[in-house]
Amino acid sequence: MLRLKKCLIVLVAFCALLLLLAGCTAKVSEKTENKGETENKTLAVGLAQFPGNLDPADQYNGWYVVKFGVGETLVKIGKDMKIEPWLAETWKKVDDLTWQIKIRDNVIFHNGTKVTGEAVKASLERTVAMNKRASQLLDIASIEVNGNEITVKNNHPNPSFIPALADPFAVIVDVDAARTMGEEFAEKPVATGPFKIKGYAKDVEVVVEKNDNYWGSKPKLDEVVFKFIPDSNTRVMALQAGEIQVADNIPAESVEAIIKTGAYQILSGSSLRTHMLIFNVTKPGLDDVNVRKAINMAINREDLANKVMKESAIPAVGPFPLVLPFGGNELEGYAYQPEEAKKLLDAAGWKPGSDGVRRKNDRKLEFSVLCYKNRPELPVLLEAIQAELKEIGVKINIINVENIGEALKKDFDATIYSLNTAPYGDPQYFLETVFKTGAASNFGKYSNPRLDLLTDKLKTTFNVQERNTIAKEAQQIVLNDAAFAFLVYPKSLLAMSNKVEGIELSPSEFYMLNPDVTVRP
């Protein structure tokens, strides 16, 4: 009997153990299942450049606000560089001065306020008041509102008005919130995108979180951290260490090593960007057009594109990349002719000195060139150019700066610079903002009356072929004046984990984070 009781006790204990294990298993399964449902999907991105603040109307900060998935414009640029609807549903040209634009009626700002025609009007007026480029490119005389439709009148005929609305300076924001928030708005703008700002640390990181009230398809990611990592090697190491899953502007020499790991993919595509030298044409020496032409002739663009940049760029001819219909195939650029460059300097009175540096009236042909490391190829390109110019008796001193935007507001001799030349596929943007007398980004104080006339003519010319012809004539004037040295047209290079999906390169460089971007487990 005692033996039977012991057996029963053991049997009961065994059954209890089975029930306990079953319960634990159920709890573990339930926990795992719930975790799969509630675990946040996050992404970390390393960027070479960062905004000064997050107010899209301030300078070029809007480019980042759009890239971060926070801001949206009325129209956007598609993969084929054609204009597509975004916050605007439709638009039409009423006459040469008037445009009617219908706004979507299901859009709300991040703070829950509905986007109306009045809100769009206020946002565009704020942008024009704050941003010199916007004032030039939009040229708005007045805006009238009728419900969710706005009627915009230009001061002059403006064929590129609708494409200019795709520029991120025209991100639609809640102006009432901007007034109420004051300086805080520049750190947490209230816009309409699929993501909204969660945190901002200047020159460190920007954290965005999904906008549950987004008008379009719902974001697949819960949170994205954009980290400012200006050094290219540090950015690549952060990618390989798993600290970030996406790295932009990676150096060409790192591509092979990244691909070999098998854990990453490289996105490469044509950009609309040009790397160039900008000369301050008011500086002694650089105010001599023959000096500027000689410098152009001493630069081996084939070597810069194929050797220095390891075939990740195309030798430049003029301001615009050759892929554009108004690009430089038919232009007369500068071939590599160092001996002819020397003859040109001799004829201009710049004679070699005992130290190899040319002189004229006791003035050395020596100047400083600003450089920044956010684009890793720029310092390497400039070092190669420094060696080439030394061969013709021109000495340049390289000055590395942390913030090129701030440096260009001060006095300088020359700079190496990279610009997106036609972000919405039209020549007027670059000609208007960089080359026209007194333009917002005319850092080198270049001026040519004929060029100014051609740029103004673009504003009244709606025929595409005529616009391309005008643009080519304008470019040839810039080349003849040699106020710039156009170096190469770089390709875009972005590295990301094989687990990342939904990111696509855009020639305009405006877009990165969108609702479809996600990370596989």
Automatic annotation (TrEMBL):
* Residues spanning the signal sequence: 1-22
Q: Which GO terms describe its biological process?
A: peptide transport
Enumerate the spans annotated as Solute-binding protein family domain. Answer: 82-441
Q: Which GO terms describe its molecular function?
A: peptide transmembrane transporter activity
Q: Matching Pfam families, A to Z?
A: SBP_bac_5
Supply one GO CC term from the record: periplasmic space
Ordered alphabetically, the record's keywords are: Signal
What PANTHER family does its record include? OLIGOPEPTIDE-BINDING PROTEIN OPPA, PERIPLASMIC BINDING COMPONENT OF ABC TRANSPORTER
Recorded protein name is ABC-type transporter, periplasmic subunit
